[in-house]
Amino acid sequence: MTVRIAARRALFAVALPAVLFAVWWFASADSTDFYLPPLSTILQKFPEVWTADRLMSDVVPSLLRLAAGYLLATAVGIALGLAVGSHRVLRDVLEPVLELFRAIPPPVLVPVIMLFAGIGDTMKIIVVASGCVWPILLNTVEGVRAVDEVLGDTCRSYGITGPTRLWHLVLRSASPQILTGMRQALSIGIILMVISEMFASSNGLGFTIVQFQRSFAIPEMWSGVLLLGLLGFLLSLFFRFAENRALAWYHGLRRAQRDS
Amino acid sequence: MVVRGLAGLAGLLAVLEVLPRTPLVSADYLPPASTIGRAFWHLLGEGTFWSALGDTLTGWGTGLAIAVLAGVAAGVVIGSVPVLRAATASTIEFLRPIPSVALIPVAVLLYGTDLRSKLLLVVYASFWQVLVQVLAGLQDADPVAQDTARSYRLGTWGRIRYVLWPTALPYVMTGVRLAATVALVLAVTAELVIGAPGLGQQLAVAQTSGAVPEVYALVLTTGLIGVAVNLAARAVEHRVLHWHQSQRGESQAR
Predict the structure, then answer these.
(1) Cβ(B138)–Cβ(B75) below 8 Å
(2) CA torsion sign, A201 to A204 to A205 to A209?
(3) Closest-CA residue in chain B for A117?
(4) Which of A15, A188, A235 sits opposite B87 (nearest CB)?
(5) Which of A25, A89, B22, B132 is paired with B177 by a 20 to 30 Å CA distance?
(6) How many CB atoms lie within 10 A of CB A19?
(7) B81 vs chain A: nearest CA distance in angstroms?
(8) DSSP A87
């Protein structure tokens, strides 16, 4: 029984991707369009282009910059979000300022940040962090504000205040929201990582792909697009795994509510 | 509340005015607020600025409209049929995290600096925001309400209309709000990186010609558009969701 369920699930998981892949493969097989090469050619180029050397010299630096910017944004976003979310006055004073900063599309900050930080790694990390911080900050504020009133009152009755309240009540009940923010931030972070490299860089995934495009190495460029897609997918898979672990209690709670 | 907010903005302006005059930050990198303000005022008098603004908003609006319609339609169909949901889950999980900027080289090759290359990026990025929120919303439907609807023998359409849709609506509005922001980001990015006409392209020109106050003025412009987009999205959300707890709590707090 369970084997059958698992087999069914596996079939569902691979069926549509397999169909789409096959459609792409056969539809592009006889393609003579210079810009849309056959999938077989792209896949053939893939291992030639993305050798271990290139992964080390282009992909790893990109990922490190992404990780640094993302972690910085997470720390700042949650800390600031907790403060802004739990103080009325602070929220009222900062709200318009934060709204303005959040509303600036992060890529336009690339030229500005370049003025201050040059075109090195610092610039890219700041660009990534400056874009990632807003969804985390905003979701944290929302999560902190949406703390269950009954739980809040219960904590007050029991005299739970200060850091204990912050850790066990506020942070805990806001964590589903915070993780939502972090998930949104991750996709923004990847975008900014690539853009900052497209602008000014001598290595990195974004730089390499644009380089291929400019030199009309079309199958190589497509292989880069595929790699970038694969990377985005793997990162989100990893994030989902981490989220499921961190929010096991929350998902369990929802499941219990559903079953009862 | 408004007074405190204005105080916050005034504080930001004061910091921006004073900071460049101290040795901490060079005025070459960060011109004082008054200089940026003058550059902004100057921009407002130029025809190229307004046509660039029009180009940006056209790309944003068209792309967002396509993405929201497609996202809601696809989401409701997929989300209310369990088999479809199971069959598409892996594909959605694979396609959604593909960063839309990966399509920049493809868009350049296929459409050049055309409006279509901007739309390709905008629609791809915002479509998933809407779709995923719609799916999450449909999944979040209250089990008791679902069972009640089943006991009362509501049909598929009835269940979508009276149980699933009201539950999903807050999620959908969040999705639309997120998509509106993402669409603006991608529209400006397309202009900045690809060179499609619009504010982003103006910004790239200002940057390469070293016109620092203009760079800040244009960044400010995009920020103001972003604020306007957010306020509009939130006003729509408030209207549509006036019955929902999050919105009622909001108006009580004020």
Answers:
(1) yes
(2) positive
(3) B29
(4) A15
(5) A89
(6) 12
(7) 14
(8) -
- For tokens 């500005």, name the residue: A112
How big is the CA angle at B104 (ends A216 and A207), to the nearest 5 degrees?
65
Q: CA of A113, closest CA in chain B: separation in Å? A: 9
Nearest to B105 among A146, A187, A210 (CB): A210
pLDDT in tens, A2-60: 778 888 777 777 778 788 888 888 887 777 777 778 888 888 888 888 887 888 888 88
Q: Helix, strand or coil for residue B24?
A: coil
| Residues 6+ positions from B221 with CB-CB distance below 8 Å | B40, B43, B53, B199
Average pLDDT of chain B is 85
- How far apart CA B123 and CA B246 sit, in angstroms, is 29
Calculate the dihedral angle through the C-alpha atoms of A226, A231, A232, A233, rounding to the nearest 10 degrees: 90
Give the number of A-B residue pairs with CB atoms closer than 8 Å.
170
Q: How far apart are CA B210 and CA B144, in angstroms?
A: 62
Structure ipTM over 0.90, yes or no: no
Which of B95, B98, B110, B209 best tests the A interface by mutation, with the highest count of A CBs <10 A?
Answer: B98
Tokens 């009276």 correspond to B162
pLDDT bucket at B252, cuts 50 / 70 / 90: very low
Contact B99 A228 (CB under 8 A): yes
Q: Which residues of A touch B105 (CB under 8 A)?
A: 209-210, 212-213, 221, 224-225
Q: How confident is the model at residue B233 (pLDDT cuts 50, 70, 90)?
A: confident
In angstroms, the Cα distances linking A192 to A16, A148, B100 are 30, 35, 11
How far the first Cα of chain B sits from its last, in Å, is 8
Q: Which of A84, A108, A136, A211 to mutate to test the interface with B (most CBs of B within 10 A)?
A: A108
What is the rounded distance in angstroms from the CA atom of residue B1 to the CA atom of residue B7?
10
Phi, psi of A31 (to 5 degrees): -65, 125
The parts of chain A modelled with pLDDT lower than 50 are none
d(CA A111, CA B127): 28
